[in-house]
Amino acid sequence: MNREWYQKANIVDMRKALDGGTVSVKQLVQWAKEIIEEKNKSINAFIEVWDVNEDEIAQAQQLIDQKKSFILTGIPYAIKDNISYKGKHITASSKILATYIASYDATVVVKIKKQHALCIGRLNCDEFAMGSGTENSIFGPTKNPADTTRVAGGSSGGSAAAVAIGAVPFALGSDTGGSIRQPASYCGVVGLKPAYGTVSRYGLIALGSSLDVIGPCTKTVEDAFIVMEVISGEDSFDMTTKNARAKKSAVMGKKLLEPKNIKELVSPEVWDQYSATKEKLKKEGYYIDEIDISLFTHGLAMYYIIQPAEASSNLARMDGMRFGVRKEGEGGLWSDYLESRKVGLGHEVKKRIVLGTYVLSAGHYDAYYGKADALRSSFIDEVNLLTESYDALICPTTCDVAFKIGLTRNLIEVYNEDKLTVQANLLGSAAISVPMGSINNLPVGIQIMTSPNRADSNTILKTIAEVVEKIRA
Amino acid sequence: MSSLEQTKSEVSLDRAIELSLISCTSEEKLNIVKDVGTVLDFVKSIQNISIQPGLKNTVGLPVLRDDVVHIQEGQYSKDFLISAPDVKESYLQVKKIITK
After folding, report:
1. Active site residue A179
2. How far apart (Å, rounded) are the C-alpha atoms in residues B87 and B93?
């Protein structure tokens, strides 16, 4: 075993090596740090690398030596900079939280700590997870490991890039409108967005509370579900969680649905890759029907009303009083709020807060938020109805390959990055992005999404995703 | 104009900026108004979509559980105070706003 092996190894490989005694926990942590040291300067995935406590390493090694290891014992990992880890800085890549130290562990961190996995640092993201390229970060953009002139995607760009460079076998991200799946697609790794309520949001800095979910970026589909199995479950700190552990599926997951008219939304090159993958799926015995989901293409408009509305409410607490950076104004408490938010928040965040305030204001509520919320209900019902006789929905994860850093585009073109991913968040469905190929060495992924009301969604998703993984290999 | 009508009056984007507690330079304000206006023009498209009758509302149905408090009073006070901007004894210190 050497560093090259570590860089390519997944969780299952590392588990076997650790339990077989061919590698030590200390060695894995050392290799992780060496890779970060070598690669992070050009990628900017890690914004802080932590010293792993010798006691933590010793405890993990002891469990392994005593043959009492859990699936993640001794495995290095990293977390997005919007997930709380007690005693460590957490900024959500925003200036306003530059001085904030997490006072408690997120539930997902507690669950992983119980397994004695070792967190080695926090990862770059867009400010308060608002963006699709990690360009809206006070730490600068994360670069795509496949081409450093391009973005790694966002908002969990750091998480996807950290896995892609082989620094860690898994990283946690958060997904509000595609923030795990889109960077996973751009970086050529697997990105899993669990169904809403499967994983506790306690300790995640909220963006859109009805949309947010924490999930993993990994090298393989199997790894993604290993991590999800560890972090999922009911949590008394998050009232929206429910017990929805993977169940055995009654069907084999062979009937797939593709939303009609998506061809015109994606680039010809991505469509070619996607069509080739579909053909291979058909050879594996899958049926793929093209069905008109009338509200599918309106998902983006619904999302850009609901998400800013929820964000404007969630970010009201960022006023410089309770935590983070405070700048005193000249006119008392009110001016302190204004000044703190003026210097602490970035342009994209301010814009979405204003948009959210506007659509929630009494005079505009019915036309915007009320309508979007009602349509969201209709969309859920429509998909539930249409997918009754299907196992999952498939489409490309992104419309194109990763875009160039600093590319000037109009705002709607930027938001279009989320065109095929926001639907899963509006529906509350589980969805996964799996690499399906590359275009000029730039990776692209296929997205598999289940119906929101299926209890066996994890099993179905895993089955289909593993077939995609197999046929690509 | 009744008080209800006053409440329901449409706020301008300038007013929405104020309500958002966003203070910005005139240049930044112009950019925000322009960008938010672009997004509003885009999302307006949903206003023309009719909602299919007979579909039941499935959003916003929370998982209901017993209303039990799991956190002890003061359990996290010490931890929260670590990162507070100003602290006096065991309390957050904020600016005095009432003077007599």
Report:
1. yes
2. 5
**Phi then psi for A30, rounded to 5 degrees?**
-60, -45
What CATH number has the domain bearing residue A2? 3.90.1300.10
Contact call for residues A181 and A217 (beta carbons, < 8 A): no
Mean pLDDT for chain B overall: 76
* Residues 26-55 (B) with a CB less than 8 A from some CB of A: 28, 31-32, 35-36, 38-40, 42-43, 45-47, 49, 51-52, 55
Q: What is the ipTM of this complex?
A: 0.88
**CA dihedral (A472, A161, A168, A209) positive or negative:** negative
Burial class (CB in 10 A: 0-12, 13-18, 19+), A113: middle
Enumerate the residues of chain B whose CB falls inside 8 A of the CB of residue A326: 85-86
Roughly how many angstroms between the first and final C-alpha of chain A, as a whole number? 23
Q: What is the pLDDT of residues A215-254, one digit of tens each?
A: 999 999 999 999 999 999 999 999 999 876 555 555 556 8
A384 within 8 A of A453, measured Cβ to Cβ: yes
Give the list of residues 6+ apart from residue A114 with CB closer than 8 angstroms, or none.
A70
Q: How far apart are CA A361 and CA A355, in angstroms?
A: 10
Residue among A102, A336, A355 whose CB faces B36 most closely: A355
Higher per-residue pLDDT: B63 or A469? A469
Query: For position B54, what pLDDT does the model report?
Result: 53
pLDDT at A78 over 70: yes
Q: Which residue has the higher pLDDT, A138 or A320?
A: A138
Q: Report whether A317 contacts A94 (CB < 8 A).
A: no
Summarize the confidence of residues B47-68 as an average pLDDT.
61
pLDDT band at B33 (very low <50, low <70, confident <90, very high): very high
pLDDT at residue number B85: 80
Catalytic residue among A84, A93, A179, A451: A179
Chain length of chain A: 473
Contact flag B63-A197 (C-beta cutoff 8 Å): yes
Give the pTM.
0.90
Q: Total domain count for chain A? A: 1
Q: Which domain holds residue A320?
A: 1-473
Q: Parallel, antiparallel, or unpaired for β A255-259 and A143-144?
A: unpaired
Residue A236 annotated among the catalytic residues of the structure: no
